[in-house]
Each structure stands twice: as C-alpha cells, then as structure tokens.
Amino acid sequence: MQAIRLFLTFTILTGIIYPLLITGIANLFFKEKSQGSLVYLNGNLVGSSLIEQDFKSEKYFHGRPSTGNYNANPSGASNQGMTNKDLKNTINERKEKLKEFVTENNNYPPDLLFASGSGLDPHISPEAAKFQIPRIVKSRNFSPEQRIKLEKLVEEKIEHRDYRILGEERVNVLLLNLALDKIDLLKN
C-alpha cells in the first residue's frame, strides 16, 4: 500500500505539478521562446525563427538542404558518410545548381551543400548568405544601390557568437528574407 501511495504522490508531483510550474515560469519570463519563437508579418504567421523554412524562389536566400524535406516531425540527418555514392551524387547536384555563382576565389559554402544534423537548422553562415547575393540581385533586377543595401542588410543580420565564445556567427534565413522583402519595396 505504501508503494502505491508513493507512486501516486510522485506521479502527481513530477507528472503534473512540476511540468505545469515550469511551463508557467517559461510563459511568464520567456513568452516568445516558450511559444515556439513564431514570426508574424502583418498579423499572419509566416514561420518560426527556430525551424528552417523551404525557400525555393531564386528571389530569396536559401537555407541549408534538408534530408527530411523541411518537415519537423521526422527531423534528422541522412547518416550517409563521405564515401557514400548517393551523398556524392547529391552534393554534385547541389554544386551544379550553385555553379553559376562561383568565382575563381569563391568556393562553395559547405552549408549550402550539406544538410544539418537535424535537417531543420534555420541558420546559414555569413559566407553562405554573401554567396547568394549575386543570384538575388539578378533575380530581383536590383540596381547597384540596391545591391549595396542588400550587402549591408546581410551584415546587419549576422548573429554573433553567444556570449562571444559559443557557436559560430550565423544568419537566420527567415528573418533575412523578411527584411529582404522590405528592401525590395524601397526601389530607387
């Protein structure tokens, strides 16, 4: 009988009270993050800043490739090693799509060739964002002044290392594309 009471006590304590308490604290002090870091534009939900969106149009910055087709439910990596023939073919296909914008001094940014571990990483490196500028300028028919604004925008959207030591510099693709649409409205 004592074991049943102990079981019920800890079930209520750790299965109901503790989760409700932590959820309440998160909603009180970290409302945006606890609700999924949702991003709204003109009152409409456009995505989450924590999960990559699939931008296909040449007018937008593209994120990392996704092995799970940008679906959050079965997120994960492909688990294909560097000697895997399918991975090599996939990388070559991705290089072919990017080939037009590679210059002699500019290599392919790895994060545009390889998927992230989760397949949902919302960030790319600053180098990958800068690599895509010529494509966006061409597809949006930007003037030289708008190109300069776009280059400045990419610089402004670089998120620096957390606490100056953790992680790498990165650019959130969704937030960058939303800001890009605002620049497009400012045609000269």
Structural notes for this entry:
The structure is a single chain. With 188 residues, this protein is mainly α. The chain has two domains: 1-35; 37-185, no CATH class. The protein has seven helices and five strands, in the order ααββαβαααββα. The strands form two sheets. The protein has a three-stranded antiparallel sheet. Strand 1 and strand 2 form a beta hairpin. Helix 6 packs antiparallel against helix 7 (173-185). The chain starts with a helix and ends with a helix. The model has no long low-confidence stretch (mean pLDDT 85).
Lateral strand order in the biggest sheet: 3-5-4
The major pleated sheet works out as: 3 strands, antiparallel
By DSSP, the count of extended strands is 5
- Mean of all residue-level pLDDT scores: 85
Q: How are helices and strands ordered from N to C?
A: HHEEHEHHHEEH
Blueprint of the fold:
Blueprint lengths: L1 H28 L1 H4 L3 E4 L2 E5 L36 H14 L24 E2 L1 H6 L1 H8 L3 H13 L1 E2 L10 E3 H13 L3
Antiparallel strand pairs: 1-2, 3-5, 4-5
Helix pairs in contact: 6-7
Q: Brief overview, please?
A:
The chain has 188 residues and is mostly helical. It contains seven helices and five strands.
Give descriptors for this structure.
mainly alpha; three-stranded antiparallel beta sheet; 2 domains; globular; 188 residues
